[in-house]
Design brief:
By secondary structure, the chain is an alpha+beta fold. It contains 13 helices and 19 strands. Helix content is 28%, strand content 24%. A hairpin with a 7-residue loop joins strand 15 (424-434) and strand 16.
Length: 517
């Protein structure tokens, strides 16, 4: 009767001889030679790339099939190689972010380049840095070819302005230092002579309005960056919303409402004594009163307008109406009142009932996901706290779960490229103004840095000089673009830009639709 064959073994105990010593190694022959080398590294300290292990047929390689070597129990293998040089102490002591100068932090964190001020051009620099965060804009610029554009656009200053914007954005992405926007500024002043006006009192170029610059640049891109086939530009898809406005008068309740449909590229936030929060100011802007002629009454009457949003774009600017004409001083004065704004904005209350119904499933999906993520952060923080006294304890983030409920996105929203199907937005850019009038002061851009995107995220020192845990770190960092002086701030710093004094005050907010995936 034949005996069962025991020649095929998946584990062998070997002896490895190195520098006069023998090391016992338990080898799994189903794994490649690379794994065996790592075992030797843990025993001897010789890195795998410095090992020379002699086996049948030559030298052991990472991809060697260990089963084909015919290894026997307690077989002795010879290894040659030397331990690499131990890491040397840093020449300079490690610095934490709070101990660095702004220049040192910019170099360490690969902070993006700013724009050199060419003489009261901060309004333009702040606008460009915020617009640069609009991904569809960058894609449209990359694909824009002035030679293939209609001759009327390629030959006039608008096409040249857009081409120079593309080149400027490329320079900003590639440069580690401040970029002087010489060519772009030249074409901007040729397209819009207002930006070439001189200051009659102090000489040099006049300070200008960032909102006006924003609108003119977006209008220009809408004209120039039209897609082939007449399907419109990226602006009409990703930055334009639709509203329905209904005018009624209480003086003639039986009069049918007058309904208008129009396109919008931003929401306005009216500021008066009753407005303390962004939503209040937006609501005031959407519901206004005006004296109009009534055909029913045969005379003028006071009408009330109710404006509701019927389409939301992926990118939604909100402008604070902070400037007004002060006749006594003949200047566009500034309202410095504090108006708080959120990092996350829900605008569904300003939408038509029909749009609210269509967005409801997707909105609930995003809300549920955020609740799970918040719960995971909370559990991770509790775990970190419970392990705080355990020396060397490793804290791992808690699992957020995967119990997301499936939902069916409304077909009309799915087909509408560039829309926001949830009504939920997140803040990604801010243009601020410091000063007392629109023709003076200074503009700065604040742009959100996506976590783990671009340069490394700062890590402030924790107890004992150790990095702070992720669970207690801010959710987002922000780049502060003060012309070519670029630094980093936190969410908390952004929320301080609400106004209320002679400090940087939010003027334009750029919100982006929250992602479904």
């Amino acid at each position: 009767m034949d005996q069962p064959c025991n020649n095929h073994r998946t584990r062998n105990s070997l002896q490895v001889k190195w520098q006069g010593k023998k090391y016992a190694v338990d080898v799994d022959t189903t794994m490649p030679g690379e794994v065996f080398k790592m075992q030797l590294f843990s025993l001897t300290g010789v890195a795998p790339d410095r090992q020379k292990v002699l086996v049948k047929g030559g030298q052991l390689k990472d991809e060697t099939d260990m089963e084909k070597l015919g290894l026997k129990e307690d077989q002795v293998l010879m290894m040659m190689g030397t331990v690499g040089e131990l890491p040397k102490a840093p020449v300079q002591p490690v610095k934490f972010v709070e101990d660095m100068s702004e220049a040192e932090m910019a170099q360490a964190l690969a902070i993006p380049a700013g724009l050199v001020n060419m003489g009261n051009t901060c309004y333009m620099s702040a606008t460009l840095q915020c617009l640069k965060t609009v991904v569809p804009l960058r894609k449209a610029l990359d694909s824009f070819n002035a030679r293939r554009a209609p001759s009327s656009l390629a030959q006039d200053q608008r096409g040249k302005l857009v081409s120079s914007m593309r080149q400027l954005f490329q320079q900003l992405s590639e440069s580690g230092e401040g970029v002087p926007p010489i060519v772009f500024l030249q074409f901007l002043r040729q397209c819009f002579p207002i930006y070439a006006e001189q200051d009659p009192r102090h000489g040099g170029y006049q300070q200008q309005d960032a909102e006006e610059c924003w609108n003119q640049l977006v209008n220009t891109m809408d004209q120039v960056l039209a897609e082939e086939g007449g399907t419109g530009s990226f602006v009409s898809k990703y930055m334009v919303g639709q509203t329905v406005t209904s005018w009624t008068t209480a003086e003639a309740p039986d009069e049918p409402p007058t309904v208008h449909r129009e396109s919008i590229r931003n929401l306005n936030c009216v500021i008066d004594k009753s407005v303390n929060y962004l939503a209040q100011g937006v609501k005031r802007a959407l519901n206004q009163t005006a004296v109009k002629h009534s055909d029913t009454l045969g005379r003028d009457a006071e009408y009330t307008s109710t404006q509701q949003i019927s389409r939301l774009p992926e990118y939604l600017p909100v402008t604070f109406k902070r400037f007004f004409w002060k006749t006594s001083e003949n200047v566009a004065a500034k309202i410095v009142k504090s108006v708080k704004f959120p990092l996350d904005l829900d605008v569904s209350e300003f939408c038509t009932p029909e749009l609210q119904d269509r967005m409801r499933p997707a909105k609930q999906f995003v809300r549920d996901r955020e609740d799970r993520e918040a719960h995971a952060r909370k559990m991770a923080k509790q775990k970190q706290s419970s392990q705080a006294e355990a020396e060397g304890g490793e804290t791992k983030p808690a699992e957020g779960g995967s119990d997301a409920k499936a939902f069916e996105l409304d077909p009309a929203l799915r087909a509408d490229v560039g829309c926001n199907p949830t009504g939920l937005y997140e803040l990604i850019g801010v243009v601020t103004h410091i000063g007392r009038s629109i023709n003076s002061g200074h503009y700065i851009a604040w742009v959100r840095k996506e976590k783990n995107v671009g340069g490394p995220d700062p890590s402030f020192g924790g107890a004992g000089g150790k990095p702070a845990a992720d669970s207690s770190a801010p959710q987002h960092w922000w780049y502060k673009f003060d012309d070519d002086d670029v630094s980093m701030v936190t969410d908390e710093d952004i929320l301080k830009l609400c106004g209320g004094g002679d400090w940087h005050t939010a003027y334009i907010l750029l919100y982006r639709a929250k992602k479904l995936d």
